Amino acid sequence: MAEAVARSSAATGGGEEVSLKDKGNEFFKAGNYLKAAALYTQAIKLDPSNPSLYSNRAAAFLQLVKLNKALADSETTIALNPQWEKGYFRKGCILEAMERYDDALAAFQTALQYNSQSAEVSRKIKRISQLAKDKKRAQEVENMRSNVDMAKHLDTLRSELSEKLGSEESLKEMFSFLVETMEMAVKSWHENAKVDPRVYFLLDKEKTQIDKYAPVVNIDKAFESPHTHGSCFSFLRQYAEESFSKAACLVTPKSIISYPQVWKGQGPRKWRHGQHDGFFVQFESPFLRKVWFIPSSNEKGQTLCRDPDTLDISAHEVIPRIFKEKQ
């Protein structure tokens, strides 16, 4: 708040200046910040070395969201009276409005040095410290949402595929297929808090009739009952065989699975995610089968996928084997 007590005529340069400042204070209290700022400006012209006038105008500019002007006035206040806590307090409030929390915290801490008994400054320091932590975490969450990198979680799988396939070209193709499918699902979850239940197929570019077999099959009814589950499995096995697919990757949200409920009855040692929402990814190939659960949480108002958790496929398979097993 603007300083309510005006300096005397002798201290501030004349009765006219005092009058202008008092009028400015009245307009400030009434919420007319534009008029208050104009009156403080007139007063500054009469007494340009008075720090309280710049402090008052900074407060008015802050209310008007003219933050750069407000910051400049707070800096002038400090320059004119470096040991006055009000200048640092004013600067801290403006930097807080700019969301420059680290700088605001430094300003409030300086203000406290000059007035260690100020409860108002202490409250500000506590608040800004929390805001700084929240902003840092929000940025971390946004970075994790924007920079999805599933490959770093799949080193073990890559090694297993390498042993099974032998061919570096085949390894690269199959591994890229899985990584791209998982990353696409994570990005969809981040944007919409959901994924569509689908099976993605890695088709054979030379053998597959692309016009007849699509690389994606919707399976939204697959988990309603044992009957629909069994029918879907039979269809997927036939589809994989007839399309000459090399591998497949199922993606489905946990929320739609009525059968089989692959997370229930397994105990906390096998299921570590409690009631967390999320989705399953199951990789199928003639050589290797894997299943992951990607849990989801809400942080700082944003949906965030956690790291994929590798599950025991014998306990948590979402669909039975699609491809005939090969050694």
UniProtKB/TrEMBL annotation:
UniProt TPR repeat ranges: 17-50, 85-118
InterPro entries, per database record: TPR-like_helical_dom_sf (IPR011990), TPR_2 (IPR013105), TPR_rpt (IPR019734)
SMART domains noted in UniProt: TPR
Annotated GO MF terms: Hsp90 protein binding
Entry keywords, A to Z: Repeat, Stress response, TPR repeat
Top-level taxon: Eukaryota
Classification via Pfam families: TPR_11, TPR_2
Protein name: Putative heat shock protein 70 (HSP70)-interacting protein
Species: Tripterygium wilfordii (Thunder God vine)
